[in-house]
Amino acid sequence: MKDINLVIGGTGFLGYYMLQELAARGEKIRSFGIDRPVPGSEVPTAEYIVGDVFSEEDLNRAMADVKTVYCFISTSMPNSGEKNLRREIDLTLRAHDAILTAMVHNGVDTIVFPSSGGAIYGDSGEEPVREDAPLEPSTAYGVGKQMCEELLGFYNRRFGVNTLIFRIGNVYGSRLYRRVEQGVIDVFTQAALSGETIKVWGDAVHSIRDYIYLDDAARAIVECTRKGLHGFHVFNVGSGKGTSVAQIISILEAQLGRRLAIEYQPLKSSGVSRIVLDTEKLSRVIGKIVTVGLEEGVARTIRAKKALLEKAGSRER
């Protein structure tokens, strides 16, 4: 009986919380990827398989009795390899083609793909941006997401693979320590609590993003997937509200009760300067998306990061 939810990249940033959300709903879950979970972060009901996404044998082993693949593998980052389109093609596109091929071979009929709620749209000028807006990515990362969406469309048309694409806004609120410079709120919070200078790239006032608390994002994706939709679907996942980097800094300062050390530097890339997502389409399917407002989400993030730092400090002593 095919009743397992496979999370590829289940030890990564978003994948870890997909496992948690699925586990909370009593679903059978399996994680597949190159890394084992950080000790203490294992999801108790999850089966962990370590393997290589480019290994046909490993993928076939992971696909046994799987009904849905949540493909949260990370082969690139929004701020890495801005000009390296070849790397996106070589890693991102090849990895997803291998996964889709294994799905067809093993009779797995549904895939969930986390796309970009920013880089794939580019600076379109529309606000809020709907799913049918023109795709005008200006970075290799955004082009990689677009190519993957096209690949998924092909497998849907050719092999009938049910496809749910979620274009996700800026997710924040990880209870784990983020070791990569991705995710403004998480990175800023970690730096502030560690007494480090916060680096702001570009214009903090006019850099606008759509932020969504991690638990809300995971819940929305799982709830939508559990609807059993057939065919090819694209949904924005966000709050539907824009917040500047300057506003994020103000919220952090207010909640920490002190001024933060800020270092302003020139913008690194030609990415999106402003993006707010239209989430009406997803709301029609699952109802309310946001249950944790921004200020409450930042407060939760601060508490989680403080607990991590206190735990690390007690180990050092």
Summarize the structure.
By secondary structure, the protein is of the alpha/beta class. It contains nine helices and 13 strands. The chain is 39% helix and 19% strand.
Features:
Rossmann fold, globular, UDP-galactose 4-epimerase, domain 1, 19% strand, two-stranded parallel ribbon, 317 residues, 2 domains, seven-stranded parallel sheet, alpha/beta
Question: What would your notes on this structure say?
Answer:
- This protein has a 7-stranded parallel beta sheet, sandwiched between helices.
- It has helices at 13-24, 56-62, 85-106, 140-159, 184-193, 214-225, 245-256, 280-286, 294-316; strands spanning 4-8, 28-33, 46-50, 66-71, 110-116, 162-168, 170-172, 198-201, 208-209, 211-213, 232-237, 243-244, 262-265.
- The protein has 317 residues and is of the alpha/beta class.
- Helix content is 39%, strand content 19%.
- The model has no long low-confidence stretch (mean pLDDT 90).
- It is built from 9 helices and 13 strands.
- Helix 3 runs parallel beside helix 4 (140-159).
- The longest helix is centred in the C-terminal third of the chain and has 23 residues, at 294-316.
- It has 2 domains: 4-169 and 213-237, NAD(P)-binding Rossmann-like Domain (Rossmann fold, 3-Layer(aba) Sandwich); 172-209 and 241-316, UDP-galactose 4-epimerase, domain 1 (Alpha-Beta Complex).
